[in-house]
Amino acid sequence: MKRLLAPAVLAVAFSASLPAQNTGTVGTPASFKDEAKAELVVELIKKYEGLHDRSDYPYYGYGHCKLPGEELSYDMTEAEAEKLLIRDLEKRYRLFSKYGKGSLILTVLSYNVGHGTLLGYGKHLKSRLLKKMEAGGRDIYKEYISYCHYKGRKTRSIERRRKMEFLLLHEK
User: Fold this and answer.
1) Largest Cα–Cα distance of the chain, in whole Å?
2) What pLDDT does 3 receive?
3) What domain range includes position 96?
4) In the prediction, which pLDDT does 123 show?
5) Which of 10, 60, 131, 154 is the most exposed, having the fewest neighbouring CB atoms within 10 Å of its CB?
């Protein structure tokens, strides 16, 4: 319980600093921009990713990985970087929209770990997180928080990020 107290306080403080959002949507919205918490997602990613510079190659803006043939510059403005972020989130949201209430939290996680890690690709199997959600399980805390490793080692800062994302975005 004590472990969740500090992130919960931070979550309340962080969400209170954002403008009010429309929560009147029913079901899963057709678009990421229609999500009630879309603005919160964008602000969360901007906070944790930061604006990347040349030392972060191949990442541009707020964590966009440059694709073959794409013309990007590290001189982009914050508005251009945010537009690129929203475009990326739109694409990922469409991949996970069939998961209903869980689509937004899966979109955020896939932005950081990759959609192939969750959906499975090649010899990699579908993630336990998705399997549990497909089976109707809503108690996904352990599975979600488990995505906190970097180069095979558990990283506290990533774990804190996952806890914050879970507290702000998970809907039962």
Assistant:
1) 49
2) 53
3) 2-8+29-169
4) 87
5) 154
